[in-house]
Amino acid sequence: MMKEYSGGCACGAVRFQWSGSPLAMYNCHCRSCQLASGSAWAPLLVVARQVLRIAGTPRQHRPPKAQGNHATRLFCAECGSPLFALPDNNPAVLLVHAAAMASADAFKPVADIWTVDALPWAHMDRHIPKMFKSPPILEPEDQVSL
């Protein structure tokens, strides 16, 4: 039996769920993630778009100057909670902000990505790999051990 995962925004206007495991989890340090999260990085789960079910209508924003490979952001129009990012280079997946998960502690990142943009004061986990820019493109049938 596949495990169910769910989450949503702070006010509950947008909820989401999926069955099965995410393909991977990354700590993304690109400038776009810094601005979207209000932090030095954003922990993101890579989920096959075909299995993600969304209730409610998140608002989309794409800044005029894209930074990183996932500049289109989806967030709650009511409370502003960041929920998803759309990767420009892989329409088969959606990036889910781990903090929006009901069970965010169930996952662990497999790498720090876009370290080219990492802030000098950000402390990265020395036990996971570092990638200068993007990780390899993951297809829905791929999965990195979490």
Automatic annotation (TrEMBL):
Domain of life, source organism: Bacteria
Entry keyword set: Lyase, Metal-binding, Zinc
Residue span, CENP-V/GFA domain: 5-122
Gene3D superfamilies, alphabetized: glutathione-dependent formaldehyde- activating enzyme (gfa)
Pfam families: GFA (PF04828)
Similarity comment text for this entry: Belongs to the Gfa family.
UniProt name for this protein: GFA family protein
Upper taxonomic lineage: Bacteria, Pseudomonadati, Pseudomonadota, Betaproteobacteria, Burkholderiales
